[in-house]
Specification:
alpha/beta, 3 helices, 27% strand
Amino acid sequence: MHKAAEGSVRITHPEGVFCNPEMELCRDVSSLAVGAIGGKLSVLDAFCASGIRGLRYAKENRNVKSLHLSDWSLRAVAVARKNARANKVKCAVSKGEACE
């Protein structure tokens, strides 16, 4: 089991559930951009894997009114759901294809 702390979230993920530590700066900048957008946002992370990006958006930005995490992998969905609970983020988590 891998553990990561990034921004305002802490996650765990098993081997085979994607979380690229080299993308931390990208997630930092993306979270700042989400916070700079006016109005309330509904966010969908359609390739959520561990859920780290969407969870950061929700925890770091007051303008995110709802979050939906989705992935095609049942294993990733279970990990994202666990990470959402661990970070006290209320969100929908489901299995689905991004193109749907």
